[in-house]
Write a structure and sequence with these properties.
Layout (H helix, E strand, L loop, with lengths): L8 E9 L2 E2 L19 H10 L4 E6 H5 L7 H8 L4 E5 L5 H10 L3 E4 L1 H5 L1 H11 L4 E7 L4 E3 L5 E6 H11 L3 E6 L11 H11 L2 E4 L6 H8 L4 E6 L1 H4 L5 H25 L2 H15 L9 E5 L8 H5 L3 E6 L2 H13 L6 E5 L5 H4 L5 E7 L8 H9 L2 E12 L26 E3 L6 E3 L3 H10 L2 E9 L16 H15 L10 E8 L1
Parallel strand pairs: 1-3, 1-11, 3-4, 4-5, 5-6, 6-9, 9-10, 10-11, 12-13, 12-15, 13-14, 15-16
Antiparallel strand pairs: 1-2, 7-8, 16-20, 17-18, 19-20
Helix pairs in contact: 4-6, 7-8, 12-18
Length: about 500
């Protein structure tokens, strides 16, 4: 498995015709293009910016189809005056158009047919304005043949040949879109996009029709893919831009925090926490041999690999290719690869990946606190759990947080209000996490037709943060702490203020 791209942009796509926002996912061959909403492109752009967009992908449909049509430079200038970077294309057929677009405020000009017909013009423009101001826009047929204005094949040139040529010329960004002969977008062509990224050396932005968040995650997980264009999915409400941007930034924060996370996994406190959660689960699941276990958001499988060693079959679902690579490597080292399967998917799609009544046990340890849509996650995760199957849930404990407040960073007036906050920073990742109470989660699970079998505190002692960073040579200490923590984690009042809480429940 390969590592995902570190930089990733989501670009709302605005396709303009006669100054109006139009839909390119339907047949555009008629006299009148299909409007999106009321066709107000400025409102659409402002809405995207309010939701956190840092780029806009703007294409003039008229000049794309008809080289004699005129660019609406006044409208483009209005878009460029908004607090966002604009990537613009569509019939940029001359050096004069390039100069005009850049003087209007365009951050990146998309070049298509011009690079084939007049590469010398492109070379001069790169020298004049800098290569970072340009991207190659490859619009290809389903056979991978580049198409240009009027959607006619341009000399039968294949996309990879063109990408390699332009990369040698100095262009490093490529926007790859697949269109049908009638000019409609038919979806992403991720296989060809990945091939272009790998063989051309360019950073590829995937165009087409991104349908949902899973498509975004799929693109993110491929090396060389550095962004996606999203048009109709945003405009139709199938995909929220704010949600997509939040998910992408959270994923980037997670990926960048993986080295710190790996260091944490060898600390005494994390080893203790894993031992405790495993021991509490064993009270309700006497053996793992023969069980089918789903580790949702399990990353490199540290929580579930011991179950595989005990005879269980494990499916780990996680969107991080880096973590799944570690899972694969570790499973091979422990000779467990025949019992462990990794799935590079968003955990919200678990209900689509597996049929109902598939799993005997679902473990979800330190996952839901990273996503505001935690209820949606749990519903999706538990869908393939058998009736009578067990759920083990580990989360950050709300009641523990006041004991970790750094009073030096707040005024006296601010401190009482901190008792009410339901989220706070992660010690490992550059992201906030949600806090939960056992009573709140138990009530929610019961409403979802789960029977709560037990709730436990993990790391009850207030000095857990001062435990040694390495467990090397500390086995006796680890055993002592496990004995004490096990007694505390099942008793009131100790478990109420533990750093983490664990709930084990049975699906009715």
């Amino acid at each position: 498995m390969t590592q995902p791209a570190r930089n990733f942009d989501i670009l709302p796509a605005l396709h303009l015709s006669q100054g109006r926002l139009v839909d390119l996912t339907v047949d555009t061959s008629g006299d009148e293009p299909v409007l999106v909403g009321d066709g107000d492109q400025l409102s659409a752009a402002r809405d995207a910016i309010e939701h956190g967009a840092q780029w806009l992908h703007v294409v003039n449909v008229d000049t794309s189809f008809d080289p004699s049509a005129s660019h609406d430079w006044a409208l483009l200038e209005q878009l460029c005056q908004l607090p966002v970077k604009v990537q613009y294309g569509g019939g940029i057929g001359s050096a004069a158009n390039i100069d005009k677009a850049i003087s209007t405020g365009v951050s990146r000009v998309l070049l298509n047919t011009l690079v084939i017909k007049s590469p010398e013009v492109v070379s001069a423009a790169i020298i004049k304005h800098g290569r970072e101001r340009f991207a190659l826009a490859i619009t290809a047929s389903s056979e991978g043949v580049v198409v240009g204005q009027d959607w006619d094949a341009v000399g039968g040139l294949d996309a990879l040949t063109l990408a390699v040529q332009m990369h040698q010329l100095g262009i490093t960004t490529l926007v790859h879109t697949r269109l049908e002969p009638d000019g409609t977008m038919s979806g992403t062509d991720l296989d060809n996009s990945c091939e272009l990224a790998e063989l051309s050396g360019m950073d590829v932005i995937v165009g087409g029709e991104i349908r949902n968040l899973q498509d975004v995650v799929t693109c993110y997980n491929h090396p060389g893919i550095t962004g996606v264009l999203i048009g109709k999915a945003l405009q139709s409400g199938k995909l929220g831009l704010g949600e997509a941007l939040l998910e992408t930034r959270a994923t980037l924060a997670f990926e960048s925090g993986i080295p710190r996370w790996k260091e944490e996994q060898n600390s005494l406190r994390v080893l203790l926490r894993r031992r405790l959660s495993g021991a509490y689960l064993m009270r309700h699941c006497s053996e793992f041999d023969g069980l089918r276990v789903l580790d949702a958001g399990g990353g490199n499988g540290l929580a579930s690999l011991p179950m595989a060693a005990a005879g269980a079959s494990i499916d780990v679902v996680d969107r991080s290719m880096a973590m799944l690579h570690d899972l694969e490597t570790t499973a091979i080292e422990r000779e467990l690869q025949h019992r462990v399967t990794g799935h590079a998917q968003d955990i919200r799609s678990i209900h689509e990946l597996f049929a109902p009544d598939t799993f005997d046990l679902l473990i979800c340890h330190n996952v839901i606190q990273y996503n505001p849509a935690w209820q949606e996650l749990l519903v999706s995760m538990s869908a393939p759990l058998k009736t009578g199957g067990l759920l083990s849930l580990v989360v950050r404990n709300w009641y523990a947080e006041p004991y970790r407040i750094n009073v030096e960073t707040h005024t006296a007036q601010e401190l009482p209000a901190l008792l009410e906050r339901t989220r706070g920073p992660s010690r490992v990742f550059d992201a906030d996490v949600l806090f939960f109470s056992a009573a709140f989660l138990q009530e929610w699970l019961q409403k979802q037709d789960f029977e709560v079998l037990g709730d436990y505190g993990l790391l009850c002692r207030p000095d857990e943060a001062s435990l040694p960073d390495s467990a090397g040579g500390e086995q006796i200490l680890l055993e002592k702490l496990q004995t004490l923590e096990t007694a505390m984690g099942e008793r009131l009042p100790y478990k109420q203020t533990a750093r983490y809480l664990q709930i084990v429940a049975r699906k009715r």
